[in-house]
Amino acid sequence: MEEYLILMRLDLLTKEAQPSPEQMQEYMKQYHHWISGIVEEGKFAGGKGLSTEGKVLKPNSVVTDGPYAETKESLAGFIVIRAENFDDAMRLAAQCPILNGDGNSVEVRKIVSVHEQ
Amino acid sequence: MNSEPLIPHLFRTEYRKIVSVLCRHFGFREIEVAEDIASDTFLVATQAWGIEGPPPNPAGWLYNTAKNKAKNYLHRHSIYEERVLPEVRAGLGEDLVFEIDLTPENITDSQLQMLFAVCHPAISEESQVGLALRILCGFGIQEIADAFLTTKEVINKRLTRARERLREVDIRIEMPAAAEMDVRLGPVLTTLYLLFNEGYYSMGQDHTLRKDVCLEAMRLCTMLIENNATNKPQVNALMAMMCFHASRFDARTDASGALVLYGEQDPSLWNADLIRSGYVFLQSGARGEQVSRYHLEAGIAYWHTQKEDSSEKWSSIVYYYDQLLKLSYSPVAALNRAFAISKWKGKTEAIRETEALALEGNHFYFALLGELYDGIDRQKAFENLDNALRLARTVADQQAIRKRIKALS
Q1: Chain B contacts of A20, Cβ < 8 Å?
Q2: Environment class of residue B131 by beta-carbon count within 10 Å: exposed (0-12), middle (13-18) or buried (19+)?
Q3: Which candidate in B51, B64, B158 is best for mutational testing of the A interface (most A CBs within 10 A)?
Q4: Closest to B249 (Cα-Cα) out of B297, B310, B207, B194
Q5: Beta-carbon neighbour count of residue B327 at 10 Å?
Q6: Which residue from A113, A100, A86, A111 is spatially nearest to A34, judged by alpha carbons?
Q7: Of the candidates B126, B144, B124, which has an alpha carbon nearest to the alpha carbon of residue B134?
Q8: pTM for the full predicted model
Q9: Other beta carbons within 10 Å of B151
Q10: CA within 20 to 30 Å of B3's CA: B37, B127, B349, B376, which one?
């Protein structure tokens, strides 16, 4: 099995798109249900949510506030999973509930280790 | 992985506490900042708890996250001001007051003060209700739009303009002084009354949402009753009215969502606890010298919780409507009074009283006449019901009228 990074991106800028607290509690439940499924398959290898604050460093000592200053698709969290192959990873990623929201997306990247053959 | 279920509505409940405390702390000028910090807190919670499960102390986690975000914001803000402002404030190396106080006392105080701040005559009543739903009840924009049967865009515009306007009048977030409490309570109670009406009479599809709106109005009213400074007779009277009406919430619609008129409701579906509570608040409100409109409406609502058609019931209702109409005339109240007259003094008298109103553009007027002429003059009954059908706007109203026409044939 190989490791894959699943990156969750949300539209955090558009005010009108913000879900209500009630909806967020619902999403959280769905999220947790999705993760539990991956755990049950023995494929969950860790992950975290990310704060909405942060900074971006650029060359020439440029520092800007917030990782989402230039994009509507802000990185909201990530998980690492084990999967048989890329298709298997995509299958798990496709069940991520944030895909029910317009403007959100999930990115899947294989983790390359220099220690693999 | 921690998978204990969270209490329902936890996010909504804690959101409104956090946003009230932050609004009060930042002051009304920065209300959007406060709302953003509160929203961000829950966005982060959604991600983090979704992956790792809820923490052992969910509310505590939320408060800490919100406090840290607020601190970061203030810190960034003050650093900016220090860089920009030429004056150096010596001796203020200490942290400025960054502490956000999320104790139960401050949470309650902040919510009360925000209630007075958003229920302000400088903005329209529907804006007051909208802001109350957003900040004091923790409703989302779509939820508010659904409750008002309008769109997100309309609600966003309305709330943005309302915040602007309140900033213009430099609204303070504080408890009114005792001497002006009765005056300041006026718009607050009107907002709660309208909020309750919105949930009770709205033709929106979501039954649960509408019930939630009613319960929110009652919760906010309870907050006023639990505070000595605001525990006034008229507040208790409003609470009594809401309890009595809410007791019939489940009996008012049938399984298909159609409206069930009072006369046809199943009293076993009426909530006895709420009726009892209403009676307690009615007693509490029966002090002092002022009889507010809420006292009158509570009196009317009380009699509606008594199913038996006694002469005392209907004559009392007529009496209360007489007083209410003197305070402020409304066609609905006048028609309801006429209906009560029919129950007390008979249909002929009621027809006389109703026709004297001459509310030719009002479908309830014709619907009432249609019902009153039933058994007296069949043709006039049909004519009036046809007029009512012509003027009725909602599907539920049209259905109710068609049912009457069918029953007559």
Answers
A1: 12, 138-143
A2: buried
A3: B51
A4: B207
A5: 12
A6: A100
A7: B144
A8: 0.83
A9: 13
A10: B37
